[in-house]
Amino acid sequence: MDLGIKGKRALVLASSRGLGLGIAKALADEGAHVLLCGRSAAKLKANAEAINAAGRGKADWVEADLADAGFVDTMLAAVHHKLGGIDILVNNTGGPTPGTVEEMTAEKLYNFFQSMVVRVITLTNALLPLMQTQGFGRIVTVASSGVFEPIPNLALSNTLRGSLVGWSKTLATEVASYGVTANMLLPGSIHTDRIDELQADRAQRSGKPIEEIREGALKSIPAGRLGKVEEFAAAAAFLCSAQAGYITGTMVRVDGGAAKSI
Hints:
Elements lengths: L8 E4 L5 H12 L3 E6 L2 H14 L3 E6 L7 H13 L4 E4 L14 H29 L2 E6 L12 H21 L4 E8 L5 H14 L3 H10 L9 H11 L11 E4 L8
Helix pairs in contact: 1-8, 3-4, 4-5, 6-7
């Protein structure tokens, strides 16, 4: 299927590795011009070069940290100078530190709220007029399955990512008439470095061997395995496609059937 996004301009946040990089590659494979961003200039440069060498799409990059107060201004300048506009925005952020509600201090809550919520919303608001004027826009916000089934020991993530649900749904209703869609993409256990880190933390906290933690995690997934980054990225690419113009205000789960709710 031709997704109809060849030549479209896409900004993918937190795309130096993991899910963000996977999405950027999937969009570039469809012929999009992607702008990578993250904290590691070396990784960004190498990933952009690999995408460009593949010859299907085009990639640029900018070093930027969501934790920095100037993040939004940096990204707006990069969108203008490197992309010349915007058609697709993928709001992806790194996950916060694991921990219980009791460990969720005011300082941690404030700092991660700024990087995971405030700057995502501020950047989206700043880019929206460009999408509305041209009559086309795709906004995909990556969150977590924890927004509908809170994940133990991820109190910060459950709280902050959950706050984006109401925002994304409200946004979708406000911009639909402009040809702009807004959807959320919710990963379950997709095999990335983040999953490995969380499982290691769970093993340490419980005192159980990491092998036991991994085996238990697989038993909770009907598919019987971890998801692949490429599978998750393909779902993101479709939500960014021309064909997905009538899909908005939704939450799409990519979790191998792990969710117990309907």
